[in-house]
Amino acid sequence: MGTTKQNTFRKMLSLVREYHTEFVEDASPELLLAIFWEESKFSNIPQKGGGPAVGYGQVEKQTLWLINQFFSTELMIPMNWNAAEVLGSDEKAVRISPRAIHMLRWKDLKTGKRRTSPDTQDAALRRYGGVGEANAGLSTSTQLGIIAGWKACERKLKEMAGNYTDGRRLREALSLARAANDAAFLSTFPLMKTAFYLAWAKNPWIESDHRTLMTELALLGAARADDISIHTSCVVAFGPDARAPGDPVETGLEKAKQMGVPIVSAADLASRVGATLTPVAGQVPTDTRGTQFLAKLPTAL
User: Fold this and answer.
1) Which residues pair with 107 in a beta bridge?
2) Which residues of the chain fall short of a pLDDT of 70?
């Protein structure tokens, strides 16, 4: 099913990883993320103002008809998608953009037939972005600047090599495609104003569980707190209370109770964000403040 709401970065990344499985040589996952952020802010929607484009990458309806024709007749891949189907399917809304770029690289503009060798990606992106078209509504220099922003964002995302736990770098990369301040990013990174302290526990997989949970939280914009303070959103309990190595004074949970910081069990938080952790016996439960903290989290993560 498709959705008209703005997806979080975590959700958009998941959709791209799941559905972008073809024509990756024409459009990398990072390029798609850049285009989807710039064109729709990760929203599967019709073009604002009643324009002809649809989907995450805002492919125009006329282009959609051309893609259907090229894939069916030249690639022998039956295809008859319409705008409503793209808007109603996250899978098609992701797949239509790389299919468009593939067509724009391989279709001979004079004959409509498949070329013997592909055009450059830059040429395809210029056509995808409508550079020079009379009805584009933007100057050529502005259109070229948008495409340059896609490519710059793609390069920065590739530098992260799939590790998107550094929220500042990630937002800087996306801003190359479409500038945004913290307020504009909040729907995309709904936990951007939260900081989690991961409490220590005596179990052999604690570091692995720390990484697993923090990776999921970071994709939602959260930061990892190095210590417990009034700025810590909550302390996450991963098992029976224990002192961290090198900390002879008090445990993280003891300090959290003294300072009135919410305590949330890792199992409860993992369930809330859809992460999978190793079951632990004797895990400290979520306290009253922690329950209130979980209740205030956005419903869609």
Assistant:
1) 114
2) 1-4, 134-136, 247-248
As a whole number, the mean pLDDT across the chain is: 93
**Among candidate residues 80, 76, 100, the one with its CA nearest the CA of residue 23:** 100
The CATH architecture annotation of domain 9-183 reads: Orthogonal Bundle (1.10)
CATH class assigned to 195-296: alpha beta
Q: In the numeric block, which tokens belong to residue 207?
A: 């570091």
Residue type, 83: A
Instruction: Give the pairing of strands 195-198 and 234-237.
Output: parallel
Return the number of other C-beta atoms located less than 10 Å from residue 74's C-beta: 16
Angle at 151 between CA 90 and CA 146, to 5 degrees: 85
3-class secondary structure, 273: helix
Q: Where are the domains of the chain?
A: 9-183, 195-296
Q: DSSP class of residue 242?
A: -
The string of pLDDT tens digits covering residues 110-156 is 999 999 999 999 999 999 999 977 666 789 999 999 999 999 999 99
Question: How far is 103 from 132, CA to CA, in rounded Å?
Answer: 19
Alpha-helix residue ranges (DSSP H) falling in 117-161: 121-128, 140-159
Q: Percent of the chain, pLDDT > 90?
A: 81
Query: If you count them, how many residues does the chain have?
Result: 301
What does the pLDDT read at residue 248?
63
Whether 189 contacts 220, CB under 8 Å: yes
What one-character DSSP code corresponds to residue 48? G
